[in-house]
Structures are given as C-alpha cells and as structure tokens.
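Anyone able to model this chain together with INI?
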Amino acid sequence: MPNELHGERTGDERFGIVVARYNETITSKLLAGAVETLKAAGVADALIDVARVPGAFEIPLAALSMAQSGNYSAVLCLGAVIRGETTHDQHINRAVSLGLTEAALSTSVPVIFGVLTCESLEQAIHRSGGQTGHKGVECAQAALEMVALMRRLTEGE
Ligand code: INI
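re: yes, here you go
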C-alpha cells in the first residue's frame, strides 16, 4: 500500500480573504459561505482577515501581497465574473487565473481560486449557494485541506 500523506492544522493559522466588490450580491454570498465554513472548522474570527478590492482583476495583486507577507497560511480569492456582450470577461478570467497560480507558486502559500466565471447572473446565483453548490464554501474547504497538507509536506523544513 502506498503511503498517504495527511496533515493537520495547528489551529493558529491565519486566513486571508480577498473579495471583489463587483457583482457584490454574489460575492457577499461567497464571502459569507467561506467565513462560515472556516468558523465551523474552528477558525476564530480574529484569525480571518478580509481585504476588499474593486473587481476580480484586482484580486491577484492583493492576494500576492497577502501571500508574500508571511502572515497567512492560505489566501482565499472570491469574485464573480459574468459574461457580457464583449470579450472583457475572458481577459479578466485569464489574468485572474494566471495571477493566482503565480501568486501561489511564487510564495508556496495556497492561493485558492474562488472566482465564479459564469455565462449569466442566474448561473452565478446557482453557484453561490443555489442549486449547483457554493463556491465560497468549496473555496474554504480547499483552503483548510491545503493548509493541512502543506504543513505535512513542509514539516522538518
Ligand atoms: N469585475 C468583476 O469582478 N466581475 C465582472 O463581471 C466584471 N465585468 O464584467 O466587467 C468586472 N470588471 C471590473 C474589473 O475586474 C476591474 O475591476 C476593472 O477593469 C478595473 O481594473
């Protein structure tokens, strides 16, 4: 049997959340779900910092700054990009996904992609606590899992 690597959190990890104000009816739900999920896992309010940015395009810079600060065990990134009549959304989505990947890989801090990329407002509603899940909850679960795993993978460093 292979050796499965499992980690555990210490309980004193600090979580950073970057949330976009654009499409706030959706992003406020993502934020509420993420915070609730972290708190249900035992993370105290005092260990959760929220940074608000104008739109999804601004998320990577704030996330990178948080990750580089050394203060956070994970950074959760929440936003909602909804397709319009132009290709604007595609430029934002590409920049955000590449930016967040780069922020994680350059800092070794998990930077979690909780940005909805939807065809319509209806789709975004479904994915922020409606019929098709909750991206904010999912993002917090991924952050908790990655924090535990990274502790295991880097132990002894
Ligand atoms: N920002 C979003 O977060 N979601 C969107 O759907 C969106 N659209 O469609 O334009 C959006 N635009 C703003 C963008 O993220 C920047 O804040 C803006 O371009 C200033 O840099």
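The mean pLDDT is 97.
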